[in-house]
Amino acid sequence: MPRAIVGLPASPGIVVGPVHLLRWEVPQVRQRIIADEQVGPEIARFEDVVARARTRLGQIRDRVSAHAGEEEAAIFDVQLAMLDDVELLDNVRALIHQNLGAEKAFDLVMADWRQSFARHTHQMLRERVADLTDVHIRVLSMLLGLADRDPVDLPKGSNAILVTHDLTPSLTVQLDRDAIAAIATDAGTRTSHVAILARSLGLPAVVGLRDATTQLHPGDRVILDGSLGVVVPNPTEAQIAAYAERAVRDASDDAAMRAIASAEPVTLDGVRIILRANVDLPDEAAAAAGSGAEGVGLMRTEFLAVGRATMPDEEEQFRAYQGVVCAFGNHPVVIRTFDVGGDKLPIRGYASEANPFLGWRAIRVCLDEPELFKTQLRALLRAAMFGDVRIMLPLIVTLDEVRAARRLLREASDELTARGVEHRSDVPLGVMVETPAAAIGADILAPEVAFFSIGTNDLVQYTLAVDRGNVNLAARFTPLHPSVLRLIRRTVQAGTAAGLEVAVCGEMASQPLMAFALIGLGVRQLSVGAQSVALVKRVIRGISVDVARAAADSAMLAGTAEEVEQVLRGAVRSAFGDAPFLRYGLPVKGDLDMFGDAGA
Length: 600
Ligand code: PEP
Ligand code: MG
Known about the structure:
This protein folds into 3 domains: 5-24 and 150-252, Phosphohistidine domain (Glucose Oxidase, domain 1); 36-143, Orthogonal Bundle (Enzyme I, Chain A, domain 2), CATH 1.10.274; 260-595, Phosphoenolpyruvate-binding domains (TIM Barrel, Alpha-Beta Barrel), CATH 3.20.20. Helix content is 46%, strand content 13%. It contains 23 helices and 16 strands. The protein has helices spanning 39-67, 70-83, 86-97, 102-118, 123-126, 129-143, 169-174, 193-201, 212-215, 237-259, 285-289, 314-327, 363-368, 370-383, 399-419, 436-440, 442-445, 456-464, 482-497, 512-520, 533-542, 545-556, 561-576, and strands at 5-6, 8-11, 14-22, 160-164, 180-185, 205-207, 221-225, 230-233, 274-279, 296-300, 332-336, 388-393, 429-433, 451-454, 501-504, 525-529. Helix 1 crosses helix 6, helix 2 (70-83) packs across helix 6 (129-143) and helix 12 (314-327) runs parallel beside helix 14. The radius of gyration is 25 Å and the shape is globular. Phosphoenolpyruvate binds at residues 191, 298, 300, 339, 434, 455-458, 505-506.
């Protein structure tokens, strides 16, 4: 019987379909020396390929424009312009004149250009590296006569499962959701941004499969189970039937979940929890508003720029924020300022860093690029006219960052006043607690901020020194590590003592057992993906704070994440029996066995 390839569950749902294998990497090229008389024909061959690449890019541009919009399509204008660049083409011709085969000549020139763009002092040029890479891959593949590697040309209704190493922004904008039904990647983890994006797009996804691109072949029929995190190649009819049954069961569970979407998130002992939604794309706002969430606890604004050639301007951002704010009426909408950098690269092509997660990302980029930051702040202050907007700063490490951001917020407000534009100048400014420095120093930050929101994805990464996107470390990414729990408790205590609201908006909040632990640690606000709102509401309504608090107290004394998990499971079982609600949603580590046939 075919064995499942086990990865990490990233976005729920079961799909059976054919593999669409996409290799978007610069192909290897061998050096080839040509005879003098071949130089002319080789240049002609090169020019012919460039012309064909232009035609192809034009087609892709039209398709992306139709599916995703003109702004996304503009990426391809940049790439078309590169194919018209006289200097670039002349450099390649010169190398061919030196008897080098066209593919090696092109490869050398592109590698050189990419390097010098990456190091360039001009941001505009650094932003172009990703485009150069795309052009490099496309033209080189054509010169080598490799099969067309584009993800775009799938007929509608293909129900294909996109299998690729990683999902880059330029691939993301090309995804035709009428043709692609699910995503499987070698790289990534549950909290990596491909996973977050897949959940936002509502596409089932399994990430961290390590070698799916070598184990699977184009056209293979597979089952992808995004809830379990498995891909079953060439399944038997019996396996397909079993998964279909599971899909039906999941759907009826979904219906039961939806039924409680409108219920109050109150624990058995009467404690009201505030449950909000995470929104990654403005398009999701309506669905999130209908999920039973009381507002937005985290809007990840960097996704506005994913796959774009440039950052969105003030007007475009204003419209996007206004749309989300209006979808939620009077409920609070917490909008986080750009968390770019790290593994999120919407500011395209900044020179890559040796340690991106310890590098120039989030608030660091915003403070160093004040015009970019103030553009966003102005858009936010304008959108605040339409509802209860709260601004949240990512990756705060020191109080200086908060103070500098506040100065820029005041400047942004003054600029709007000078322009005579209506806005609110008193928007609450809160911070994400997602570094050990912020958690340990929460009492230092508290007097100068309006709220805390704990970003457990990064807090776990930085506390345990485990790269959240590294599939080789996925088993070491343990949110229930006692030190993580201590930092969360410390943040809750410091925040509460200063009269602040303390929320959790990382993935921990959407995992049933972890949500139980968070409530036990004193958290009274959770923000989760829209598709998890009903699940978490069910958890809240099925537990009591007293039991959760006692469980968290014992868990704090445990030595390891595994022991913490055991303590929590034991407490849940003895208080609530088999607690079936804990079986819903995406499994936490060690939960695969609870879900039956993962390794079938
Ligand atoms: C987090 O770090 O927990 C968080 C919510 O932010 P992001 O996942 O976008 O880094
Ligand atoms: Mg974060």
